[in-house]
C-alpha cells in the first residue's frame, strides 16, 4: 500500500516515513504543495497524509484542487492547528480525517486503516477469500488459521489484491501500490513478487489468476 506524506518539516517527514515503511507501507514524501500536486498527478496513492502549513502551495489549497480534479484519494490532515475552525475548514475542503500534532504513530496507523476501509466500502475489518483471512485491524494475513509469513513486498502485493478482491488489478496499478519513487523497480519486478506469493498460497483455497493482457485477480480457487 503506497502512501504520500506532504510535510515541510523534514525531520518529522523522515520520522514518519521510516515508521510507516517499518509498518510495511511504501512511502513517498513531498516537502511542498507544488511537488505534492505533481506527484498526485503521476502516481496513485492509497492515502495522503497532509500538513496544512506548506511552502509554495498551502495544504487547504492543495486539497481543494485535488478534489476539484476529481481525485478521491483519502486524505488525513496533520496540523498543529487543532481549533474547531481549523478542523471544520479541513473537513469542508474534502479531508477524510484530521489528526492534531503531536500524535502517536499507532493512532495515525489506525486512522490510515480506517480511511482505507471506508474507501473500499468495507465496514468490517476482516476480508476472507477461501481459507485466506486478512485482518484489517492488524494488517496480518492468516491461511488456514495460521499466520502467513510474508516479506514486506509480498505483503504489499497480497494486501493490494485482497483490497480489490473480485476485480482485476493491472500490473501497472499493482506496481504503483508496491513501489515508491525512490525504489528502483519496473512493472516486470511485480511478476517476481506475484510468483512468490503464489508459491505461499499453493495448496490453499485461494489463487492469484493471471488474465492475459488485463492483470491479476485474487479469487477463491475452484
From TrEMBL:
DNA-binding region, as residue ranges, is located at: 124-220
- CDD domains in the cross-refs: REC_OmpR_PmrA-like, trans_reg_C
Where the record annotates domain OmpR/PhoB-type, the positions are 124-220
Q: Which GO terms describe its cellular component?
A: cytosol; protein-DNA complex
Please provide an example of a Pfam family that matches this protein in its UniProt record. Trans_reg_C
Question: Sites of the modification 4-aspartylphosphate?
Answer: 51
- Spans traversing the lipid bilayer: none
- InterPro entries xrefs: CheY-like_superfamily, OmpR/PhoB-type_DNA-bd, Sig_transdc_resp-reg_receiver, WalR-like, WH-like_DNA-bd_sf
- For whether the record's keyword set contains Phosphoprotein, the answer is yes
Write down what this protein is called. Two-component system response regulator TctD
Which species is this record about?
A: Rhizobium leucaenae
Q: What is the lineage of its organism?
A: Bacteria, Pseudomonadati, Pseudomonadota, Alphaproteobacteria, Hyphomicrobiales
